[in-house]
Amino acid sequence: MKTYTYDAAGNPLSDGATTFTWNVAGKLSTTVNNGKTHAYRYNALDQRVSKNGPLGSKFTFFYDEAGQLIGEYRDNSTTATPTDDWLVRQETIWLEDIPVAVIRKPTATGPIQTYFIHADHLNTPTE
């Protein structure tokens, strides 16, 4: 069983394995698990735009004009110079304001996975 600790704002600080830090705007700033740190960056609209991890791993997040997350991409390059080697990690398909599907490709060689999202009578996404 995990034991959670929280700050005064209700943000988790630890779950026993991972520690979390939060910026002054209340957004996740870093996570540390087994000595591996991930740092998160946000744009002026408070949207997460990147996650940088150990050994140079980098994830970039993209949003549509309505502010809905539409894609998560991982820089799959192994060099220190920019390349076109980006791996689609996750894309979300929207029908107006309702997410209807998520397409994932967690690894470069693994299969593409499609998850359909169902909404209840109030258009709230459920599993």
From TrEMBL:
Protein's name in the database: YD repeat-containing protein
Superkingdom assignment: Bacteria
Matching Gene3D superfamilies: RHS repeat-associated core (2.180.10.10)
Known InterPro entries for this protein? YD
